[in-house]
Amino acid sequence: MNFEQVYNSYFGRLYSYIRARVSVETAADDICSEIWETVFEKQDSFNPDKGNIEQWLFTIAHNKVNSYFRLYYIKNIFSLTDKEDIFPSDETQPQNKLVQEEDILQLNSALSTLDRRERDLISLKFFSSMNNREIAAVSSLSESNVGTILNRAIQKVRVILEGL
Amino acid sequence: MKYTDEEIKNKFSNINFDKTGYKKQSIFNKVTSKYAGRSFNTTKRYQYLIAVSAVVILAVPAIMMLSEYKYSDVKPIINTQKPVMPDYSESDTTSWEPTKYRAHLSAQAGVTLNADNSDTPPNRTEGYRSSLCTIIPDGESQGSSCGGNKIMFVNNPEQNSDIFQERGFNSAQKFPLSQFPADIDTSSYDNFKKQISLGEPLDRNNLRIEAIVNSFDYNYPAPQEPSTIAIDIEYSDAPWSKNRLVKISIKAKQSESEPVIAKAAKFQAEFNPINVEEYRIIGYETPLAEPSDGWVDINQNHAFTVLYELKPKTGSEMEDMYAKKYLKTALNTDDILNIKISYIDPLDKTAKTITKTLKKDEYKPFDNGASDDFKFASAAAAFGQLVKDSPFTGNLSIEDIAIIAKPAIGSDKNKAEFIDLLESYQSAARLEKLNKDLETLQKQFGVPESK
């Protein structure tokens, strides 16, 4: 596999997935570079016969974000950091910024009502462009279970969105 | 408004968190630069492993054989006796050089030597100071992912609690972000005042410079509606060096309805590497143990002052372009620094930020334009540095500090007492030095201690 090619095609989706799960921008950046470091290190071990590259990348991302949460639940400061710094700081065009921030705010407020697993699956659904079977493989759940959880989560998101 | 599943998905999957492509580029650079020259494939990796193990397997017996030869056969001609170490016991101290003796005494007494001793005290060297703290810049943090600027202290403060640890200068290019705590405990200065007035031994090490600075009232501008926290920045010279000094005053609004103004607030300064060579925070010697320690709840009327000393930079255009690459936010070329407060509004439970930028042309010379508050705060900081024998004190004496502070008192009784304290400190310090010299002489000539 060509690292640069893979990076260019998947960076956006992977980064959005992380940002949807981790609201702290700086933490998301750290996790993101850790993920790509892992991808770089393990690029030789990727076997296209065993699964597609999307699934492989999002499995790595899924595990990294989970280990981030494990660490920070232990430190017991997650409740504070979760709500901090939801505004990206490096946007330059103010008119786009407003629309964008509106969407990010909506996304964050909708996702904040979900539990961790629901938030994970919804973020995968929104940004990975994988089907339920592939999401099941990434999150080690059964396909029907993924469908149920996603259904329930999307109902919750809809309630929030329609209430806004 | 009604949404279908597909509409919800589209709404969010179209969000671009990295519109400028800055993240994409910076993370790519970071990852690839880390692995530059190391991108060998699996086969090569195994070859490398085999080569290293072969070297180890061959080298270890060879070294063992050589060392055996050295100690068995050549033994007679090698002097295996350990060098005779000088006896550092109490009884033998008279034979020591004066330098070593003074160092020994001061180490025993747990104090640092006075600055007017020409030799270098053993527990305070250039090298030691510079190794005190390592600030991991935002872009280079690895492993943990708590985000933001992380300050990691190499030395364990508890192990060296008797040694004054001061934060040194940081390069604005490498470490543009600096987080500062908002809760300041002024009790150490109260204790110090008590020690001076009661003639007790002076506890210089636990005295905190930021406690002295924040023990006085300043004119904090009240926040303008709808803002809840006001940031006031003043930019002038540092009286103790050729560098500049920035005074940052933070004040939360008065409110009877909401005693808690801001939850989980974090205060951060970002320095512009185009205009700032190096900076250091004044005081705050004890490090933040955990990143979470930077988060505080701000109550109504809370106010505090932070000082930063900085070396301004006048770089070439080329250097400026290079430095601009390191800017995280949209700082402009004529900005010195940017203060950012992020917190959670307790009323609507949303994250908010307040920022304020200091421009280059806001500089005012110390003797012509700096406010009384600025002068007094800098005098208070200078006093702290002098008492703690800080390497950054410069040539400022107690008299100089009094000259700076006196015209800045106004009608404040508390500030007027500070001038008296300067005088009492000077006599206390003289007495302390006399006692120490006497003690040294008594020990040197074996005169029994008088009781």
Q: Percent of residues of chain B in beta strands?
A: 15-25%
What is the averaged pLDDT score of chain A?
A: 80
Q: Work out the oligomeric state of the chains in this entry.
A: heterodimer
Low-confidence stretches of chain B: 72-98, 110-165, 288-292
Structural class designation of chain B: alpha+beta
What composes the largest sheet of chain A? none
Indicate the structural class of chain A: mainly alpha
What does this structure look like?
With 164 residues, chain A is mostly helical. Chain A is built from eight helices and no strands. Chain A has helices at residues 3-21, 25-42, 53-75, 78-81, 94-111, 116-128, 132-139, 143-163. Chain A is globular, with a radius of gyration of 16 Å. Chain B is of the alpha+beta class. Chain B contains eleven helices and twelve strands. In chain B, the strands form three sheets. Chain B has a five-stranded antiparallel β-sheet, with helices on one face. In chain B, strands 4, 7, 9, 11 and 12 form a five-stranded antiparallel β-sheet that branches. In chain B, strands 1-2 form a two-stranded antiparallel ribbon. In chain B, a hairpin with a 6-residue loop joins strand 11 and strand 12 (351-359). The model of chain B is unreliable at 72-98, 110-165 and 288-292 (pLDDT under 50). At the A-B interface, helix 1, helix 2, helix 3, helix 5 and helix 6 of A face helix 1 and helix 2 of B.
Spell out the blueprint of helices and strands.
The complex is a heterodimer of chains A (164) and B (451).
Chain A lengths: L2 H19 L3 H18 L10 H23 L2 H4 L12 H18 L4 H13 L3 H8 L3 H21 L1
Helix pairs in contact in A: 1-2, 1-3, 1-6, 2-3, 3-7, 5-8, 6-8, 7-8
Chain B lengths: L4 H9 L8 H13 L7 H31 L25 H12 L16 H5 L2 E4 L13 E4 L16 E2 L5 E3 L7 H12 L10 H5 L15 E9 L6 E9 L7 E12 L4 E6 L14 E4 L3 E10 L4 H8 L10 E10 L6 E9 L12 H16 L10 H8 L7 H33 L6
Antiparallel strand pairs in B: 1-2, 3-8, 4-7, 5-6, 6-10, 7-9, 7-11, 8-10, 11-12
Helix pairs in contact in B: 9-10, 10-11
